[in-house]
Amino acid sequence: xxxxxxxxxxxxxxxxxxxxxxxxxxxxxxxxxxxxxxxxxxxxxxxxxxxxxxxxxxxxxxxxxxxxxxxxxxxxxxxxxxxxxxxxxxxxxxxxxxxxxxxxxxxxxxxxxxxxxxxxxxxxxxxxxxxxxxxxxxxxxxxxxxxxxxxxxxxxxxxxxxxxxxxxxxxxxxxxxxxxxxxxxxxxxxxxxxxxxxxxxxxxxxxxxxxxxxxxxxxxxxxxxxxxxxxxxxxxxxxxxxxxxxxxxxxxxxxxxxxxxxxxxxxxxxxxxxxxxxxxxxxxxxxxxxxxxxxxxxxxxxxxxxxxxxxxxxxxxxxxxxxxxxxxxxxxxxxxxxxxxxxxxxxxxx
Length: 350
Hints:
Elements: E1 2-7, E2 10-15, E3 25-34, H1 37-44, H2 46-58, E4 81-89, E5 100-103, E6 106-109, E7 112-115, E8 129-133, E9 137-139, H3 146-149, H4 152-165, E10 172-176, H5 180-191, E11 196-200, H6 204-213, E12 217-219, H7 226-233, E13 242-246, H8 253-260, E14 266-269, H9 281-287, E15 290-293, H10 299-310, E16 320-324, H11 329-335, E17 344-347
Parallel strand pairs: 10-11, 10-13, 11-12, 13-14, 14-15, 16-17
Antiparallel strand pairs: 1-2, 3-4, 3-8, 3-17, 4-5, 5-9, 6-7
């Protein structure tokens, strides 16, 4: 099959062996796959990405999830935000050829658990074919088009962060960062009918997207701090509870959120920072702040997100700013460095 492959620290497009389904598995053809910021990190900082992943897995011996860690000396086909068509069903499966499915990006076999898209055995959606487990595959409902269904995975990240925050409709929210993760958080908050949602980003294009996704105000933090904007537009700011979402993922942002946060407010960290960072604990202690780190989603949140998109409760079409074939994946990685040009580029194999 044709695939965009992470090989030797760069992306190359080449032919590789077709994957084959085992018992309980499906051979699927990728119909749409989003390019995720985590994939950009994995390509640019591969050794650090692998090292941190291994340390994260080893640091929690009680976790039931112990996926294999990719070997960067071997080929890796990334892509974990996908919608695919069932082509062939292995023994013991329930799906049918022709069905469209999405799945949490994990696969399992007799050898263990694998992260689809960050694995040497199970290729992701930057290739023509994938193997998924029938047990984890969800049928795409309501005739939902593959491009929109492929955004189930990133939108579920926002849903999970909003759920963990415990935010209510009468609370306020400030979202730092309007990349795909921040925009998914904004959409999840709007779906929960949070009354006041303020977004902050340097990029005018991303601020405009935040307003389309449900923010009531979007500001350039160089011009107006996000918390100042909240107080400006919210007549109940003095008495309203607020949750701050850090969705930038660069060093210094957690401390900046702690500094801006009102006393006894909540901070949810959903941006993935790959570098060591520094905070000042006295800032959190003195204000009695609560901090929650959010990662990924639960399987039921993934399924609920798919149905929310299919029912029109989550509008994902504004996020799609580009489409490429497999041959265009390397160029798309470069294009995503410009926040004014793109939010989410989809890979559409032939």
